[in-house]
Amino acid sequence: MLAKRIIPCLDVDDGRVVKGIKFEGIKDAGDPVELARCYNEQGADELTFLDIGASYKSRDTLMEVVRQVAREVFIPLCVGGGIRTVEDMRLAMNAGADKVSVCTAALRNPALLTEMARAYGSQCVVLSIDAKRVSEPGEAPRWHAFAKGGREDTGIDAIQWAIEAVRLGAGEILLNSIDADGTGAGYDLELTRRVGEAVPVPVIASGGAGNLDQIVQALIPEGGNADAALVASMLHFGKTTIQEIKTYAEQKGVVVRW
Length: 258
Hints:
It holds the Pfam family His_biosynth. By secondary structure, the chain is of the alpha/beta class.
C-alpha cells in the first residue's frame, strides 16, 4: 500500500494566508512563509499554495512567496491560482514549484493540460476540480465542476471531467468539495471515492476537515480512499499539527509517510 500524504493548503491573497467557508467569509490566517516553515518542521509531505486573488499583482506576490519558501523548505511545492498558460507554469516552476494546479483555465481550454504535460511531464500537472453537488434529494448523486473560484457552474460533470483531464495529461486530481469547504463537517467521501475509482492517478481530498477522524475517513478504503488529504483551517488556527494527524492516522491503520 502506498503511504498516504498529509498536505497543508495555504490560500494566499496579497501575500497573506486566508481561509473562508464554502469559498466565502475570508479571514486572515497568517504569514505564508512562517506557516510553510512550521509545517515543514512538523513533517508535511507537500505544501500547496493557491492564489485566490484576482490580479496579476496577487500572482506576482505569490511567486515571491514561493521563492522564499523554496529556499528554506525541501518538500514538494504545488502552486495554483492564476495559472492560465504554459508560460505561467514556467514562471511558477522557476520560482521553485515542483508542480502546478489549474482549474478554470483547464475548463476553458482543456488542451492546456496536454501542453503542460508535454512541457514538464504529467507528474507536474495537477487538475484542481471545485465540485458541488447539484442533484436533488432522492436523485442519484451528481456533481458539477465549477469555475471562477466556485462562482460559475459550468454544467460539466465533475467525475467525467476528471476522467477526461487524465486522458489529456493531468497526473493528479485535487478534488475540492465546495459544499464542505471550511465547514469542519468532513470531506465529501462519496465524491472522493467515486473520482478515485474513475481515474488511475492520485486523488487529493480537499474541503471540510474538522477533526482527526474525518481526515482518517478520507484516506481509508471504506471511506474516501484518497491518496492524500489537504488540510487548512485545522492547521492554520492551531487545532492540530501534522504529527498529531499522522500519529492518529497510523493508530487507525493508515500507512503514512514519516
